[in-house]
Structures are given as C-alpha cells and as structure tokens.
Amino acid sequence: MDKGIVKLAPSILSADFTRLGQQVADAERAGADRIHIDVMDGHFVPNLSMGAPIVQSLRRVTRLPLEIHLMISDPDFFLDEFVEAGSDSFLVHWEGNANLHRTVQRIKALGKRAGVVINPATPAAVLEEILPDVEQVLVMTVNPGFGHQHFLPTTLPKIRRVRQMIDQMKSGCDVEVDGGIDADTASLAVAAGANILVAGTAIFGQSEGVTAAMTRLRAAIKPSNELTSTGLARCFERRYLCSLE
Ligand code: DX5
Ligand code: ZN
C-alpha cells in the first residue's frame, strides 16, 4: 500500500436516486477509486437503505470496485446474493457478530476482499486477533445508520491506534474512515493514518455537482506536515453549534 495516496470512496447513500447511474459515472470520471454502498436492514441500524439489485444495476454502469458496507444483523445470509450481483469487497461490523472470523473466511472463500468495521464506541483493541485476516479496517467516524452527520473528533486517536497496529504488523491493510468526511475533516483523518475516505454528503449532496465537489475534497487533503489546527477547530465548532440547536 502506498501511504502517500489517499483513495476516495463516494457513498451513494447521499446520491440522487433518480439518476444514480449518471452520478456514479460522474464520480468515476472525477477520479473516484471505488463506490461505497451502504446496506441497512432496520435492525442492526435504525434505518433501511438498499440491497443487491442496486449493486447489480451499478455493475453495468461502472468499472470501479463496489464495496459493500453491511449494516445488517445476518451478513452471512446475504453474501452469495451480493457476490452474484457484482460486489468486490465486504465490510462487516465487529459489533453483534459472534462469528466474525467465520464471516471473514467466507468472504475470502468467495474470492472477495474482507474488511472489518468498528463503531465509535468500540476500542481498537478488539481488532488485534482479526487484523491478520483482513485487508481493510473501517473506522466509523459517526454512529452508523445515516448520512449527513457530524464527524466525531474523538475517533481520531483510535484511527491513529489502528494505523500503529497495522504498521507494527508490517501489513498492507488499508485504514478507511466513514462519516462526516468533508473538506475540513478529511485532512484530520488522513493525518491520523486513514488512506481511504468514504464521503456521501460531501460528494453527492453539493449544489456544485459531483465533479466540482470531488475536486474540492481532493484538493483539501493536505499532507500531514501542512496540517494546521484549523480543520480540528472548525470540526469542534460545528459540533458545538449543533448541540445548541
Ligand atoms: C453511515 C454510512 C456512511 C454514510 C456517510 O452509516 O455508513 O457511508 O453514507 O455519509 P456522510 O459522508 O454524509 O457522512
Ligand atoms: Zn458506510
């Protein structure tokens, strides 16, 4: 893995579903590295989103890898269906999965990339035994279930810890972050050690359009030595203002 290269994974949760194909094509043209698809079942998280038919449709309009973030109670039950639809990788939560190792092995047996996800309240330490088996860790920077939430700055030390654990193992495991990533928070996550950024609202929810939004987001990712405290200050300020509403 080249740590200098930060990958962008637009999350279609915030896309305009009346023209989903066009929006994904725009993201691909603007340099997206993969497409992030959030699957929710109303049990694991208090929201419903999309299933394998969306993956099947998108498979016809993009060559980008399709990564499936499974926020569902029984991930094993749906894996075959998503693989058949054209998925390339799966992100499964540590929370609520009593047999995570088995799920990860099943994903690999299906010939796909496996990643493990941890929620904001879950410590990095739970990853220790599963790390050698996965190709990616997704650190949730909001509580899962909804787009358009504020980045939780308290997750930054955990991103750093996960990166340290991976570096110590000398593995090429990717560190991805998901939730509230925008022009202010992207650099903070990258400085902490993330090399893949999921972004929904910051890419699909902007009036300037997908291409301009992606260009702006990429330009905002500064190398860590150029990072100032401005991003962190803005991030805390927004959360504070929000708590007053
Ligand atoms: C939240 C999802 C995210 C969501 C991110 O549960 O996992 O992928 O789409 O949306 P933004 O970028 O708007 O926070
Ligand atoms: Zn997600």
How is this structure best described in words?
It is a single chain. With 245 residues, the chain is α/β, with parallel strands linked by helices. It has a single domain (7-244), classed as Alpha-Beta Barrel (TIM Barrel). Helices cover 37% and strands 17% of the residues. It has 9 helices and 8 strands. Helix 5 (156-169) packs parallel to helix 6 (185-192). The protein is globular. The model has no long low-confidence stretch (mean pLDDT 93). The site of zinc ion has 6 residues, from strand 2.
Characteristic terms for this protein:
8-stranded parallel beta sheet, binds D-xylitol-5-phosphate, 245 residues, alpha/beta, TIM Barrel, binds zinc ion, 17% strand
In short:
It is built from nine helices and eight strands. With 245 residues, it is an alpha/beta fold. Helix 2 runs parallel beside helix 3 and helix 5 runs parallel beside helix 6.
| Biggest β-sheet strands, sense, barrel | 8 strands, parallel
- The low-confidence parts are none
Number of domains: 1
Quaternary: single chain
Shape: globular
Report, as a whole number of angstroms, the end-to-end distance.
42 Å
Q: Going across the biggest sheet, name each strand in turn.
A: 1-8-7-6-5-4-3-2
CATH superfamily: Aldolase class I
Give every kind of bound small molecule, once each.
D-xylitol-5-phosphate, zinc ion
CATH architecture: Alpha-Beta Barrel
Radius of gyration: 17 Å
Strand content: 15-25%
Put simply, the count of helices is 9
Under CATH at level 1, the class stands as Alpha Beta
Please provide the count of β strands. Answer: 8
